[in-house]
Write a structure and sequence with these properties.
Blueprint (H helix, E strand, L loop, with lengths): L1 E4 L11 E5 L2 E5 L26 E3 L5 H4 L2 H7 L5 E3 L1 H25 L9 H7 L3 E3 L6 E4 L4 E8 L7 E7 L2 E5 L23 E5 L13 H17 L4 E4 L5 H14 L8 E4 L1 H16 L7 H5 L3 E2 L15 E4 L9 H9 L6 E4 L8 H6 L6 E4 L4 E4 L3 E4 L8 H11 L3 E5 L3 H14 L4 E3 L6 E3 L1
Parallel strand pairs: 3-4, 4-5, 5-6, 10-11, 11-20, 12-15, 12-16, 13-14, 13-15, 16-19, 20-21
Antiparallel strand pairs: 1-2, 1-22, 2-3, 7-8, 8-9, 9-10, 17-18
Helix pairs in contact: 3-7, 11-12
Length: about 450
């Protein structure tokens, strides 16, 4: 098998992996790096410009996996795109939102090359998307060979899939982004157990070890307790969330908590892409049964729209619980602007519930000591860290020990490390060398070709 990681900066970002298996040429995902605006945010697609791709596979609909897809499809106008039924429902909304964001960045920041694609282009691409049900074998006949392919639920987010590939007597398993735990809206990963010749595995949480007592159920209880305490003491609670997956899980959790009298009675404000995605979750739930979500939750909670005017550096007078995109507090998003006004008030709390890249504003705020000054550079606001800033272990990625156990039981001859920062990959490499000493462990250098 030939393999090239097209994510030019490595780590987590513009995820894209080129595979040549049994003569069939495959590209898995084509994302954007959220920290690198402009053309540099794309994978290095020049490396496959002259490759006659047989198929494109999308593992799930987060933008670090699909944000560059229309550019890729423009470059390869005849190649079909395979994805799960749930992802097929979600992907159009995610791409249209990305086009909106890039157009705004082009207008405000004059970023060269933006937008990378248009709404009209997105609509024209949809006919090339092929839905593949979970656990159903699909034969792929390429121009120079044939493979069998099967999707397996990976638990990370609605529609997320692992990919099993068979060619001759060889078996390959690509985990995609994984969560083994059940979420309120989604069951955990359902992977086949046993041997694979080659394993391609995510490593996101390789440097993160969950402490005792930080299990998901305990963290949800702690989150609700802190919300209650914040509101009861006259403050507001800001939850920056990922629009796809985390917002819907938390809305369901808060709905249950309100029903059983565990969540304080307070206004709940929600905004951003997550509201539109919630409507699609309802459709996914009805059509595929892959998730558990009912749109009536929004009405039952009495969700309110965000205030029409949010001024950077000024706290909104409307106290309550704010559930707002984006999860990493990315610049020029509603959560970023709200945080710039809430941080200096000791009655308030800002709570993070997912992975925060250390280089994003969310990651930087988590690393800032109380009482220090935090600079919201994009809006030129400096604020003292007086509000409580906390992180809750509700990640959409599997614990490192769970992934390691899965990897070891496969007894794979070759293991490829993906989707992780250098330290995270290094931990996996060390552990795998100890527990599978005969395995060939590859931490691919970006844009370098490997025979695996």
């Amino acid at each position: 098998m030939k393999l090239i990681d097209l994510n030019r900066q490595g780590g987590i970002g513009a995820n894209s992996l080129y595979l040549q298996v049994g003569g069939v040429k495959i590209l898995v995902d084509c994302g954007l790096n959220p920290k690198t605006p402009g053309l540099g945010a794309l994978p290095d697609l020049k490396m496959i410009k002259d490759v006659d791709l047989d198929i494109i596979i999308i593992t799930h609909c987060h933008l670090d996996h699909i944000g560059g897809l229309p550019v890729l499809m423009r470059q390869h106008p005849k190649t079909p795109v395979l994805l799960t039924q749930s992802s097929r429902i979600l992907i159009e909304k995610m791409l249209h939102n990305s086009a909106n964001v890039m157009q705004k960045q082009a207008d405000e920041e004059k970023i060269p090359g933006y937008p990378l694609f248009t709404h009209t282009e997105i609509e024209g691409l949809m006919k090339r998307f092929v839905s593949v049900p979970f656990k159903r074998l699909k034969k792929i006949k390429g121009k120079r060979g044939e493979i069998s392919l099967m999707f397996h639920p990976s638990g990370h987010v609605a529609g997320a899939t692992a990919v099993e590939i068979q060619t001759g007597t060889r078996s390959i398993f690509l985990t995609g982004d994984v969560l083994f735990e059940n979420q309120r809206t989604l069951k955990g990963a359902q992977f086949p157990m046993g041997h694979f010749d080659t394993l391609i595995i995510e490593t996101t949480r390789g440097i993160t070890e969950r402490a005792y007592g930080k299990e998901r159920v305990h963290e949800i209880a702690r989150l609700i307790d802190l919300i209650n305490d914040t509101i009861a003491n006259g403050g507001s609670f800001l939850l920056p969330v990922f629009a796809l997956g985390r917002m819907q899980e938390l809305l369901s959790v808060f709905h249950d908590a309100r029903r059983f009298g565990r969540l304080i009675d307070c206004p709940i404000y929600a905004g951003g892409l997550g509201i539109g995605i919630s409507e699609l979750f309802d459709e996914v739930s009805r059509k595929t049964k892959d998730v558990q979500f009912d749109l009536r939750i929004l009405k039952d909670l009495g969700l309110k729209k965000l205030p029409l005017k949010i001024t950077p550096g000024r706290e909104t007078p409307k106290k309550g619980l704010y559930i707002v995109s984006s999860g990493m507090l990315v610049e020029r998003t509603p959560s970023y602007t709200l945080a710039s006004g809430m941080l200096a008030n000791p009655r308030n709390t800002i709570g993070f519930v997912g992975f925060c890249d250390p280089d994003t504003p969310g990651g930087k705020l988590l690393a800032t000591k109380p009482g220090s000054t935090f600079h919201f550079e994009a809006v030129n606001v400096k604020a003292k860290v007086k509000a409580r800033v906390d992180r809750f272990e509700l990640s959409g990625h599997a614990e490192r020990t769970e992934l390691l156990e899965f990897a070891v039981q496969t007894k794979a001859r070759s293991i490829v490390l993906t989707h992780g920062d250098p330290d995270a990959r290094a931990w996996f490499k060390t552990q795998l060398k100890e527990q599978l000493p005969k395995a060939h462990v590859v931490d691919p250098i970006p844009l370098k070709s490997y025979e695996v």
